[in-house]
Design goal:
This protein has 325 residues and is an alpha/beta fold. The protein has two domains: 4-209 and 293-322, Aldolase class I (TIM Barrel, Alpha-Beta Barrel), CATH 3.20.20; 211-288, no CATH class. The chain is 42% helix and 14% strand. The protein contains 14 helices and ten strands. The strands form two sheets. An eight-stranded parallel β-sheet has the order 1-8-7-6-5-4-3-2. Strands 9-10 form a two-stranded antiparallel sheet. α4 (82-91) links the parallel β3 and β4 (96-101). α2 (26-34) runs parallel beside α3, α3 (49-62) runs parallel beside α4 and α8 (181-189) packs across α14 (299-322). The radius of gyration is 19 Å and the shape is globular. The structure holds flavin mononucleotide. Residues 18-21, 23, 42, 70, 72, 100, 121, 142, 145-148, 175-178, 196-200, 202, 285-287, 289 line the site of flavin mononucleotide (FMN).
Length: 325
């Protein structure tokens, strides 16, 4: 399968595994890249920039295919040392980065100055165009369906992807709600050059999380998410659990402040939930695509299946419907 994205990034299939806190580790990333997709390590999953250097080395020992690193820039009272993480990425000779979050300019400029190709992930056409002006090499556009931070505009992929495709000139991948070959064919039809997936890759053999979390993603349907943090203008989509239900309930009180929910939503608790399989101890981030997840394949089998389905839809089903020109 050949698109502007596969050509620009030297990969076999137009399928990216987006950065995922606590999950974007070498096991998953190398499995995705070895299967012909593009895996992304998650920089901030590593406690220090030096740990990130070691994780990049570890990933290199597990694949000789291209992989990237996600750098997520979120507003924070105590921000992590972003510049040091960025330097670790550059020093390690990584050539592909996925930036996500607020004000990426300083990072994009430094990466570009060092020959690193940047895919900026964002949730609005105006942000995509602003990143394009900064000189990014590709855009990943994340619709309202997505796990993580869908932004505050609530525009689903069916509108957001073609709206962005009409204006963005660099290669663009569609993100949010993708999990099978129907989604890949649809994304291509809507004008994207490939897809980015998060939640679907969590339910794979190689995802470094507890089996019970993978089974939860299989058991859940498309209604099993909660939107949290809306009141704090930092909306996030997570799996519907007792913890996220409680966050919703507490946040709905008219005088609610972030301190009321902080004890439920820390990163350490989310990590504990993923590692122990106990969804009572922290948030589990997941998207509406849970409704399309029915098994736990290897990354290789998942990617081959998605590509095979998309090919069949395009060359058989749609070709038959279209008829001769
Ligand atoms: C468990 C989990 C953790 C995530 N953590 C991050 C993150 O740290 N940085 C980021 O840019 N995106 C993060 N995301 C978002 C994904 O990279 C991707 O954009 C999103 O999952 C796409 O939507 P989908 O889940 O419907 O495929 C996370 C997603 C999940 C499921």
């Amino acid at each position: 399968m050949k698109t502007r994205f596969t050509e620009a990034f030297g990969i076999k299939y137009p399928i990216v595994q987006g950065g995922m806190q606590w999950i974007g580790r070498a096991e998953l990333v190398s499995a995705v890249s070895n299967a012909g997709g593009l895996g992304m390590l998650t920089a901030l999953t590593q406690p220090t920039p030096d740990d990130l250097r070691r994780e990049i080395d570890r990933c290199r020992s597990m694949t000789d295919k291209p992989f990237g690193v996600n750098l997520t820039i979120l507003p924070s009272v105590n921000p992590p040392p972003y510049a040091a993480y960025r330097q670790a990425i550059i020093d390690s000779g990584v050539t592909i980065v996925e930036t996500a979050g607020h004000k990426p300019q300083e990072h994009v400029e430094d990466f570009k100055a060092h020959g690193v190709r940047v895919i900026h992930k964002c949730t609005a056409v105006r942000h995509a165009l602003s990143a394009e002006r900064m000189g990014v090499d590709a855009i990943s556009i994340d619709g309202f369906e997505c796990a993580g931070h869908p932004g505050e505009d609530d525009i689903p992929g069916l509108i957001l992807i073609p709206a962005a495709a009409d204006k963005v000139k660099v290669p663009m991948i569609a993100s949010g709600g993708f999990g099978d070959g129907r989604g890949l064919a649809a994304a291509l039809a809507l004008g994207a050059d490939g897809i980015n997936m998060g939640t679907r890759f969590c339910a794979t053999v190689e995802a470094p999380i507890h089996e019970r979390i993978k089974q939860l993603l299989v058991a859940n349907d498309e209604r099993c998410t909660n939107l949290i943090f809306r009141k704090f203008h930092n909306t996030a989509r997570v799996a519907k659990t007792q913890v996220s239900d409680l966050v919703v309930e507490l946040s709905a009180k008219p005088d609610a402040v972030f301190e009321d929910i902080r004890h439920l939503v820390t990163g350490a608790q989310g990590r504990a939930a993923l590692e122990s399989g106990d969804i009572g101890v922290g948030l589990v981030w997941a998207g509406q695509v849970q409704g399309l997840i029915h098994d736990i394949p290897t990354c290789h089998d998942l990617i081959e299946r998605i590509v095979g389905e998309a090919r069949a839809i395009i060359t058989q089903r749609l070709a038959a419907i279209a008829g001769p020109a």
